[in-house]
Amino acid sequence: MTHQTHPQQALAACEQGAMCIDDRPGHAVTLLRLRLAHLHPEGWVDAVVSDVAADGTITLHRWADGTTAQVWHHVDRHDLLVTGSVVSVHERYGVLAAGEHRLNVAPR
Known about the structure:
Layout lengths: L6 H10 L14 H9 L4 E9 L4 E6 L5 E5 L13 E5 L4 E4 L2 E4 L1 E2 L1
Antiparallel strand pairs: 1-2, 1-4, 2-3, 3-7, 4-5, 5-6
């Protein structure tokens, strides 16, 4: 019996976002990533959402120092992240917290 892989199936699911199985930064958030972020509260930075682009780029304005940061998530999250929304981002572990939601994000 020959085993064949079909990477296009995972890619198609990931592109749609609903069934992403990829745990790289910017894709599905893992329990390990959430746990590490929870265990290191000093890494959280509060920010305001400045922009959410269709390509998944999220622009944040940090409260502490007024600088701008960009992170990326594989799905356009206009539905969750509205301009002016207050969020927290754990830059070390790539977790963005918006209310009760947690997203895995990658630095841009």
